[in-house]
């Protein structure tokens, strides 16, 4: 005759006294003793998709609750050989929309039973130092929103570490990628502005080591050349507010007049450019000068700015990155055929750019082209 299992409540009460007397943490072995099952059965109860009977599951969960047992993620990872943690690498100066990305990634990963471990890079060139830290945490995979060299990717391959590049591309080696088409976004801005009669362009570029900023600038310059328009005056920027004002002054100084349009590598620089134009230089935006940015960060929508910009489909991109990385992790095959998912930016018709042709009344002026405005 099978010996009946002890009452879970009574067993838990007695065993809690033992644990308190020994001044230690509750373990899965304690839960197994109270529930009257094996330790492996307890482990299966806390593994998603594991085979366990309803009766055993009920006893284990009741015992765990009475003992205030919390599964040890580190110990479980020794058994499953997975930490259920993914690393996210982000260059801190790259973009203000990345808080939105982190929120989306955390939600997407949480729904898949994984947690996000964030590594912030002061600059994209700091990736070497950060990667040495990433290896120490035994993460299951990495989403990198920072520039990785061909050598870095080779190291991921050597370690068989699943990797998805976010808004970055590497042409030398095969790698999974989720990105917005930043070159096409730059081309789109020029096309819309040129169609409204803009001819003389200035560009306040982003960080020199930012792949995203360089792609946007390259696309804008390519499109201007295709349209037969003069090369833009390009000045450097740091993707911050002061760079917008400094960039505007530098462009005006180089041209000797206010250009028709200025394209900024980020919304923050565009806002700095706007404030300088309106409040320091007395330039009428958008009648005398059109200003456009990138990324549609929250301040760009504020009534004081209502910026003409481009928005990345961040929720969809984050979902794609999470799906892709988890698929590689679950298939235990990091070297799978690379998947490249490219998304298009959405044009936001704000109030800082002339998007309809404006015919000048000044004799000899080109239709759709505003007369130069000299800054004394």
Shape: elongated
- State the order of secondary-structure elements, H for helix, E for strand: HHHHHEHEHEHEEHEHEHEHEEHEE
- In percent, how helical is the residue content? 40-55%
Reported for the largest beta sheet, the result is: 6 strands, parallel
Features:
4-stranded parallel β-sheet, 12 strands, single chain, 6-stranded parallel β-sheet, 376 residues, 43% helix, 13 helices, disordered C terminus, alpha/beta
Summarize the structure.
The chain has 13 helices and twelve strands. The chain has helices at residues 8-22, 28-35, 39-45, 54-67, 73-80, 98-111, 127-134, 150-159, 182-195, 211-226, 241-255, 267-280, 314-330, and strands at residues 85-91, 115-121, 141-145, 163-166, 176-180, 201-204, 233-235, 261-264, 290-292, 309-311, 340-343, 346-348.
Structure write-up:
The model is unreliable at 357-376 (pLDDT under 50). The protein is an alpha/beta fold and 376 residues long. The protein has helices spanning 8-22, 28-35, 39-45, 54-67, 73-80, 98-111, 127-134, 150-159, 182-195, 211-226, 241-255, 267-280, 314-330; strands spanning 85-91, 115-121, 141-145, 163-166, 176-180, 201-204, 233-235, 261-264, 290-292, 309-311, 340-343, 346-348.
